[in-house]
RNA sequence: GGCCCCGUAGCUCAGCUGGAUAGAGCACCGGAUUUCUAAUCCGGCGGUCACAGGUUCGAAUCCUGUCGGGGUCACCA
């Protein structure tokens, strides 16, 4: 059982029970398949709380008209305790209104569960590996990395809340040519630290200032040990030193963003430990590796294209468009080859479900990796890849000009320091992962309704304000959690109050569907909608009908019931923000 | 040329895996402030869901094709 009732699932259960009864009574064929029967929210609240398509889906197999079957289902629904009314609409929908008691019970559930509200057992403890960030250890993170970091992190929280056993993983690309370049770049900074004039950083090396500190640290640790020697002598130790320094940098950035990985996997360890060779040998034995010649891409041909035979993986057998090289011309493994070994390693560690979060520029890589997983796990594993589109950094609507060379590059850390981690995390989720995102440094700090971070935080702060005022009006034991849970919820009858409860009650379903779809941005949208319902109730009480104000000296029982509503709302907001890794704000003066 | 993503209101974008009369914010127009925070709310205006076929009770959503925008295309990661 989940910690809260998913009322759509609950009502679906009721409908299916009625259908089963109809089947045993002979009104429906005994073997009728109910799998297409769904219970969903209505588009328009005027249509009721939930609607089912049962009559439309089953009319044909039952040999009945949708309306006739609907009539029989409605007769059954009238006997369901939670149902206030049910009626046929449109082509055969059954619109269902649930009674207030049912909604009041949901309110009690929220209070009982606290921020654990919405936690589900959907995943049944199944293990899922989510690999994200995996930024190359060659410098500090930029804003685009930050988006992937947030999407991966929140997706992990979300999937965990839906009942899966999640491992957050970072793949360290500490092998290959680029970390050699890093080592050479460090060597320059190291000589600089020892007093040499190194002049301009040559083209092709990393010019960033962040290596200066690493150079100094190396000079302090090792003195002049590597200053004059041959590259062959110092390359490896400097590489290790540089990677360690860069990973420290990245870990600091991640910590500032509130992101923490459980596992760091090293590419070089995988290669060094023979993991790649073993996997390739296995593939060769299965005749999935062969020596062939690739055709150059049609359209534009690369200038330095040379036709040559190379070791290819039969990716086309598993859904890819062409077979993919696993060896470079110098005989070493391609990145793809090591990545295959890495994904098999994850599978062998017990993760049949894998999710990778990548930048959109790696889009062309998805099919081959999925083909690889299919081949390596013999269909036992599944890989979903979330591609993150670019982040356009703006200030007051103008693009922020960035150049690595000119040293005007804005790092993720600078943005976090400027606007705060909570704002960064929230804004990163205000678009689907595969849509481009504008991040305006000024706009995200504005206190207005078109800033979703503020809008949601403000609704929570307003709650806290009400609860603070209540403390002056009541003795502590009159409005503690116990008292709120015993409050007379039946007093909450206004449409705006009930509307708020109904959206709160949709939280468990939101968690489950967003987790299943691997779409963390839905949480941000949900919280915005939930906040809107609260702001609406607030203003309704203060303007249209002051009897709807939360605090009333004259009617304390009613006030306690309303405080319970306020508390429950704040709890669901907090629960959602917890998934997003954002701290709820209690005051915004 | 192949592959992937995208095309929804003047602008920025949602649309819960196929549901009803397609939604929200901004902008524009008009309202609400003796207050628990008006940093908010309510109403109005605004659409050929790029286009053409197809699948079915039913399509913004799935399939095919066309047009337009972006990304990517051995030996980088």
Provide a short characterization of the protein structure:
This protein has 589 residues and is of the alpha/beta class. Helices cover 48% and strands 12% of the residues.
Cα separation of the termini: 41 Å
Summarize the main sheet: 5 strands, parallel
Strand order within the widest beta sheet: 7-6-5-11-12
Instruction: State the share of residues found in helices, binned by percent.
Output: 40-55%
Poorly predicted spans: none
Radius of gyration, CA atoms, in whole angstroms:
29 Å
Morphology call? globular
SS element count, helices: 20
Tell how many strands the DSSP assignment holds.
15
Fraction in beta strands = 5-15%
Mean pLDDT: 92
Class based on secondary structure composition and strand pairing: alpha/beta
Walk me through what this model shows.
With 589 residues, the chain is α/β, with parallel strands linked by helices. The protein has 20 helices and 15 strands. Helices cover 48% and strands 12% of the residues. Helix 2 (54-62) crosses helix 3, helix 5 crosses helix 18 and helix 19 (521-544) packs antiparallel against helix 20 (556-580). The longest helix is centred in the middle third of the chain and has 26 residues, at 231-256. The protein is globular, with a radius of gyration of 29 Å. The structure holds one RNA strand of 77 nucleotides.
